[in-house]
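note to self — DONT lose this again. spent like an hour looking for the file last time. sequence + predicted structure for the chain T wanted, 469 res
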Amino acid sequence: MNDMTAINRESSIASLAKWTLAAEPAYVSDLALRQAELLTLDSVACAYSARNASAPRRVAAMIDELGSKPACTLIGHSGRGSVLDATFLNCALVRSQDFNDVQFIQKDGKLHIGGHCSDVLAAALAVGEAQGARGQDVLAAIIMGYELFRRLRDLMPMDSVWDGASAVGVVAAAMAGRIMGLDEARQANALALALARCATPSIVRYGELSGAKNMVGALLAREGVQLTLLAAKGMTGPQQVLDHRWGMQEVFDPALGFERLWAPIDELFILRSHVKTFACIGTAQASIVAALNAHRLLAGRVSDIEAIDVIMADLPIIRKQQAEKPRLTPSTHETADHSFTFLPAVVLMDGELTERQYVNERWAQPETRALTAKVRLSVSEELRARSPEAMPCQIRVHLAGGEVIQTECLYPPGHSFPDRGLAREPVVEKFKEVTETILTGERQARIIEEVLDLRNKGTVGPTISLLSI
């Protein structure tokens, strides 16, 4: 028996491999495919918005210096690259502005941040383009990948020292193997290899944030695809990587039930994937809406502001993020777009939150710092109860003379509801807004039309190639 067939059929990896390759009617339902198309368009918008961001610029420069097989589209760039380079750059682009989708998960009866599944979505596009895959097959792989991401995250305790991005490399391998049409043995090896390389410490997402936060997903996605390509050529991985105590049990807790990984589908996780309509952390989206509403009522009286109460849902993740000291007085773009003090303050001043609010270190300017210092953070159980599946916010602006302006947002416009998914308009408007200086109106319209009809494409290549510049 050769090493490609000597797989323990009772291992967790074997069961998981079979599940990732299975034909699943839920993956090709109209609602699921529509949601996957909208999230693909949103991810493309995020990639375009990050063309000039520092991290993807460095990746693009490295690809240019080293050379790359021109097989796949590099979003927003004129050149082409190998499937690995396209995965690396495009995933970095999607993630770099912290503008891509966000998921919330229930843990111990409380809502938490589940992560950003679209960190890895561009890997499916690159592999699909390289393989000449059908649009529906690529979308089905994305839907499966979102589901696998949730299941892996469910096996990670909330107090774990390992970051949720640890799931990304495994998801990339699973999606790539499905699109490539691997058999169960090779898929099991791809997943085993990816699991052996996926562990990422949570420090990438806390404290004084570094460039690693926005790059870790792209690094893991690239590695997941690369390991799948090796598995396709016969490379084997440790089949007991989940089951053995020397495997990944410190990252994914077996006490939480590995069998949950390959359990039947109930409600698709992709339908709980929310789009950020503002370029900042997902837990602050509602606060931006509330601040925009307060700005209109404020009518330019910024100098009259004495205090700003930002009241958020009483959840462990909110308490944790509110207590992060570097975010209270941000000193970098990475901490500014995660700051519950800076973000509402600058929106009250400007009446918008775009990339313009981060230009010239806006968070460090004296006027901005002075208003940021007037923000008082707190939490409310009553607010949480009124919007249990979201991250709501209420803002109270106290003015000289005693007037109080109060606004709130329970569900921001990019919130996805499981029974109907995302609204089309916020996704399309976001795409148009971030590409208005990059693409002509005609090109915008064509990309929107093509991406939102991806399920009907005999091959994704022509659609993906539209994303170059």
